[in-house]
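#structure-requests
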Amino acid sequence: MITKCAIVVSEELPTGLAANAAGVLSVTLGHRVDGLVGADVEDADGVAHPGIIATPLPILAAPRAKVAALVRAAAEDDELFFVSFSALAQSCRTYAEYTGRMAATTTAGLDSVGVAVHGPRKRVDRLVGSLPLLR
């Protein structure tokens, strides 16, 4: 099976917050999806370099309402792995603050500002294929 991944962030986010959302989502994606990060490599001088993602990872943009719709659609598809990133998470200064605030917030109360998806290429393309790159 050919897989694909993509990250979508809200086009309403300022550049720094959009980069932050994409960074957080990519770290989680790399940690949770086996085989996404390639093996370490050596350059021509024999210097070792840590592996990087072995597949393209487009960072796309969409209106915040579309990001929320993508989260809902990904949650309903058993073949997709997804990570949602909320405005609540982005506003926290520590992980302890994040876990405490999440425990007091319903799923419906979360305002998604980004989502990462991974799964079969056709399913990911159906979700994000028409979205533009983040510029």
